[in-house]
Every structure is written in C-alpha cells, then in structure tokens.
Design brief:
single chain, globular, 5 strands, mainly alpha
Length: 585
C-alpha cells in the first residue's frame, strides 16, 4: 500500500494529523523512557570499541525522570486536540473540512472524492472531529487530575536503602511503585485515545469494531489499575468478563452482516438495507446492538457499570461515564442512523424506545437508593444513556429531516457538555479520595461548604447541571432534545378536541414526557449531595490541596456554566449542528 499518500498535500491538519500525533505519542512513550547510555561492543579481537545504541543501559537524567511519561501524554493529547480543532477551521468555515481515506486496489487513497464510496474506511468531517475533540479533552482532564492521584517522585528524593521505620518504608515503596506505573498509565490513556479516535472516524464497521476494542481493552486495565485496593481488581474483572461476552456477541453479529452483504462499509450496508434486510441481517444488527448497549450502559447490559465505577479511581470512572459512553453512542449513531435509517421510519425504533424508557427509569430509581456518590453517579450515567437512547429512537421514528437533525444536534451537544459536569463531579470525588480514599460515602461530603466553599459550589453546579437546571449546559442540551422531539411529533392538532389531539400524538412524544418526569426524579438525589454539603455539620475540616485536580475542576465548572448560556454556547451548538449535518450527510 502506498502509505506516502497519507502525508500528501499541504492541508495535512485537516486529514490525519491528530491521529498521527497520537501514534507518535505512543511510540515516544515506548522509546523515550528507555533511552540510556547502552553500547554495543564490536567483536574485533584485541579491540574494545563500543558503538552507542542508546536503548537500555543506565538512563539519562531526563529520560529517567518519572514525571516525563505524563508530560509526553499530556502534550500528545493537547496537540491532538488543537490539530483536530484547526482541521475544522482552516477552510472557509467551521465544519466544512471533509476528506476520506479509502483502500482501493491495494493502495491508500486520500481525498474528498472518495467520500460515500464503498472503499472508504475513515472519514474526516465535522462529526468525527467534534467527537474526537470531546474524547481527547476528557482524557486530558483525567490525565491531569491523575497527576495528584498517581504522583511521580524524582528519584533523588527517594531513599535507595530500606528504612527501619515501617511507616517510612511503606511510603518509600509506594513512591517507587507509583514511579514504575507512570509509563503504564500514560500509555493506556493514549491507547484509549487512539481507539476512540478510530471509532469517531470509521465508516467501515470492521474499523469501528477494531477501534472499539482497542479503547475497551485499555479501559479494562485502567479500571483495575490500582490493584492494591480491595475493590479495584474485582471491578476490573467483572467489567472485563461482561465486556468480553458483549464484544463476542457483537463480533458474531458483525460476521453475520458480512455474510449477508459481503461488505462492511456503511454506505454499502445502507444501500443493501434500503433494498430490504433479511433475517440474518436483522439478527446480526441486534447482536451488534448488544455490544453497543454494554458500552453505553443501557439496561439490561448495565449491571457491571456501577461496580466498575466504584472500583476504578474517580478520574478513570469519569472517563467511563463521558468519553467511553460517547464512543458507544458514536458507534450506535453510525449504525442506526448511517445504515438503517429510512424515510418512513425504521424497524428498530420501538425496541430502542422501550430500552430507553426502561434505562432512564431504572437508572434514576437505582440512584435514589444509593448512598455511595460514585455508584449514584454510575446509575445517573445509566439514566443519561436512557435520555440519549430516546433521542435516537425519535430519529428512527421520524426518518431523515429537520426534526431528526435537531435531535441529533441535541444528542451531540449533550455528549460534549457531559464532559464538563459529569467528569467534573467525578473529579471532586477524586479530590476527596486523596484523603485516605474518602469520598465513597455521603458522610464524607458533610459540611464541605464550610471546609472548602469553592469546591462545594463547583460540586453544586455539577449536580444542578446533571439535573438539567437552567441556565446550565445540562438544561440546554435536554431542552434541545425534548423540544426537537415534541415539535416533530405533535403535528397539527388545531381544531381537534382533546381526545383526538392525544390520539394523534406519536408514541415518541411520550418519551419526551418521560424525560421530563425522570429529570424531576433525579433532582432528589442530586440535591441530596448539595444539602449535606451546605447544611450538615462535620468535625473534619482539612481538604487535600491537590493543585492539578483543582485546576481541572475549575475548568469543568467554567465549561458547565459558559456552555449553558452565552456566545460559547452558541458556538458549540453551531458546531454540534454542523456535526449532525455531517452525520446525516
């Protein structure tokens, strides 16, 4: 294959530059920390000539610094985010840069003339770039927050000999262990980013599945990364087992679609589906939805999610509830909208609507009885999956059109702003976990407003945004979705009596009403956190400083506010609309 075509042209930033930055970051993560003064002795008798090859030996001061891996990972994610942003701004307007990567006759071809063809494997457009920016932003915030959760200590500050005092020796060993795990954690984060970026760009179900599994396998390790804890390894194993079964079912469904159509490109599958699917195609699609249902934590595939969220460190749990969930919804939209959406409605809409109703209701009811904030947010994440599944069901029922585009815009907008308030809530928990792993009980939040007013205000903003209280970004995303469903399904009821008007309503209308009801239910457990922070008494006063976590919390707080009202909300809504148009494209 002519890989040189991937680097052709002056507008590389609008093609695969963000992905190549991630690949180069992974390579740098593998190579740079191992650079040292290693030499190779030439096998010449009587001579001791040595040639340096630098991989191995005693590492240099810079490459041996345990803080270097996270710096490489943070720079890689930031550079990937910026180039993805620039790729949609260097042309005549935001969201118009579009190009496709295809494999035709054994060579890699790049250009917008390949878009829509069956040979296309990856597509760079407003939708894929916005989703990719969301993924990298969430991972970058989690990486920065983990700077304090998994600190790197310079080698010269760690005693080389065993200490007599057991407490001092335990802290020494813990610092050494943290230093050894720096590369592992940073490399896993970059692997997740590369997998998610592949999912965002994929227009071929095989490529989509490869990216999905690349990100998932790294996520399983991140969940159980803190193996010295009691619940971390158990949570990782549970999530891995359930996820592996779901992936196996999805892969089997993928093979059935290939047998049916002979091609896994979305354009080819869409044409074949419009001509009429057979039983094998429908069963294959249903099996793929099992895999995607697990990724988005939809009922009944959600049972491992609360344990995984509770067992993982809070920044990793935040990634699972935002970026990982967004990856699952990207896959769902690629398949359900890109393949099966037809003008007179799709067959799967009633099933997706039923799953959405059960998911949002079950998630909120389960969260009501949870007194562990991490598990409560896990069930809240299940409920939010139900809200977004309702939007997808509405799109399937309406078919292509302005109403569907408005709902898709709301879905994409919600996925992006979810990074601000959902990840922000987990980062507040992460800050409290720095104090001897507190934060897993409701009592740990008692009196937080007096202990740290700024932190309590941030947590309150996150809770209100999750509940959909105006004027925060969570309210705007739900309003866009519900208004899109209602305006598209009510129809013309002028001159009709009440019974006739109700009878003329589409069943999707009642999903919008159910979103309202469940949002009202969720207010109870969100406000419960606010009440204990501001009105309960506590003797504990100190809150860990953890500067990097606090910076990320403040960034998330600003995002939850500015994306709900004002010019930045308009900019993001316009970008989400461009992404929705590209998705229907």
């Amino acid at each position: 294959m002519n890989l040189g075509n991937l680097f052709a042209g002056p507008d590389m930033a609008s093609r695969l530059m963000p992905e190549w930055i991630l690949v180069l970051g992974i390579i740098a993560m593998l190579v740079v920390p191992n650079v040292g003064n290693a030499t190779f002795r030439l096998p010449i008798p009587g001579k001791s000539w040595r040639i340096p090859y630098f991989i191995g030996g005693k590492r240099f001061a810079l490459t041996g610094d345990p803080r270097l891996p996270k710096a490489i990972a943070a720079f890689t994610l930031f550079a990937s985010f910026i180039t993805a942003l620039l790729s949609q701004m260097i042309d005549s307007g935001v969201g118009v840069a579009e190009t496709c990567i295809a494999i035709a006759e054994g060579s890699v071809e790049v250009g917008d003339n390949w878009c829509g063809k069956d040979a296309t494997m990856l597509k760079v457009d407003a939708f894929s770039r916005l989703m990719e920016m969301m993924f990298t932003a969430a991972l970058l915030l989690a990486l920065l927050a983990n700077w304090d959760r998994l600190p790197a200590t310079p080698v010269n500050r760690i005693p080389t000999k065993r200490q007599r005092d057991e407490g001092v020796e335990s802290r020494r060993l813990h610092r050494l262990l943290n230093n050894r795990r720096q590369v592992d954690f940073s490399l896993l984060i970059l692997m997740v980013a590369l997998g998610m970026s592949t999912v965002a760009l994929s227009t071929n179900l095989f490529m989509l599945f490869v990216g999905l599994e690349l990100a998932s396998m790294a996520s399983y390790v991140l969940i159980s990364f803190n193996k010295e804890t009691d619940i971390g390894p158990e949570a990782g194993v549970k999530y891995f087992i359930v996820g592996s079964v779901a992936s196996a079912v999805g892969l089997y469904g993928l093979s059935m679609l290939y047998i049916w159509n002979g091609d896994l490109s979305i354009s080819s599958l869409s044409s074949a589906w419009a001509a009429g699917p057979n039983g094998m195609a429908i069963i294959g699609l249903a099996m793929m939805l099992v895999a995607f249902g697990f990724k988005v934590s939809a009922v009944p595939f959600h049972f491992a999610a609360p344990d995984a969220y509770a067992g993982a460190s809070a920044p990793v749990a935040g990634v699972l509830s935002t970026a990982s969930k967004g990856m699952g919804f990207v896959a769902l939209m690629r398949v359900l909208i890109g393949v099966t959406l037809i003008d007179d409605g799709s067959e799967w809409t009633i099933l997706i609507g039923a799953v959405a109703a059960v998911t949002m209701t079950w998630g909120n009811i389960a969260a009501l009885g949870s007194h562990n904030p991490k598990r409560m947010l896990a069930y809240s994440s299940v409920a939010h999956a139900g809200y977004m599944l309702a939007g997808i069901a509405a799109i399937g029922a309406l078919g292509p059109g302005e109403g569907s585009e408005l709902i898709a815009t709301a879905l994409i907008f919600h996925l992006v702003v979810l990074v601000a308030f959902k990840l922000g809530a987990f980062l507040v928990i992460s800050l409290l976990e720095c104090d001897n792993n507190r934060g897993s009980k409701l009592e740990d939040y008692y009196g937080l407003a007096r202990r740290d007013p700024l932190l309590a205000i941030s947590m309150m903003i996150f809770m209100l945004a999750l509940a959909g209280v105006p004027p925060l970004s969570g309210f705007l995303s739900k309003l866009m979705m519900v208004s899109g469903i209602i305006s598209s399904t009510v129809g013309d009821v002028a001159g009709s009596n009440l019974s006739e008007a109700i009878g003329s309503l589409s069943w999707v209308f009642w999903l919008a009403i159910l979103i309202f009801i469940n949002s009202a239910i969720s207010l109870f457990y969100y406000l419960r956190i606010c009440v204990v922070m501001f009105f309960e008494e506590t003797e504990r006063m100190a809150v860990p400083r953890a500067a990097m976590i606090r910076i990320t919390i403040m960034l998330c707080t600003m995002g939850a506010v500015v994306f709900g009202l004002g010019p930045l909300a308009d900019v993001l809504a316009a970008a989400a609309n461009d992404a929705a148009l590209a998705l229907f494209g």
